[in-house]
Design brief:
By secondary structure, the protein is α+β, with helices and mostly antiparallel strands. It has 13 helices and seven strands. The C terminus is likely disordered.
Amino acid sequence: MDHDGWLAERFDEHRTRLKAVAYRMLGSLSEADDAVQETWLRLNRTDSGSVQNLGGWLTTVLGRVCLDMLRARKSRREEPLGAHVPEPIVSYANGLDPEHEALLADSVGLALQVILDTLAPAERLAFVLHDMFAVPFDQIALILGRSPNAARLLASRARREVRGAAAMPDADLASQREAVDAFFAASRRGDFDALVALLDPDVVVRADWGALPSGVPGELRGARAVAGQALTFSRLSRFVQPVLVNGTAGAIVARHGRPITVMGFTVRHGKIAEIDILADPERLRKLDLGVVRSRRARHDVPTDRGSA
């Protein structure tokens, strides 16, 4: 095997982990792919013979690439109408494929990505690398150009934000699905009281509508307010397809194979505590939603279950 082939093989050994790091950092699969590709290009421009710890070197370079991308994003981002919901990973409801399973190991669903997206770039990098991927602070300090103690403080600050805002979901996927199915069934029946009973009293809904005016708020809080909005959109509940969204119970609303929304749910103690909705048509078109395409032949015929 020539040197280029050997180097590509070595890089591929680290590719899955690099993409997982990049997705946590950027909240976008397409941007994560870009970051991993840029890391590969930089490796090709480097004297690889001088790299003693390839995994550590690649993580450091990827961290710098992601940090630059986050900083550029912060400087140019136009505020969307509503909340900004990171790009979800959508999988069949009966299980994750191997690539998605690797990307989502130790994740707590889309809700965590939403919280990570509110952190400053340096805080996000320190928290993701240390708390999620066990990268030592000495290495994180090199990426940030700060001292190890400063990196430790950044991670600690981010950790407090995450713990204060992220709702840990119930671990049992079947109980998550039961709550989500019941939510859509109650919506379809127009049963306001049943909806309220399924929702945490402090439930929050975040909706990313993109650049299109929706007339619906980007964030809504409280069980009665959320139940009322669910009834407003009850006509769409018959077009719901159950899926996994970042490894937890979720749904796609699709008509004739065209996705209208992707919804991620956080179920805690049997109650729906958070709903994150991506309804930006431009971003939906960019998602790999094979689960929708594979069901076009059904022509959106509802089943007897509440979520399909």
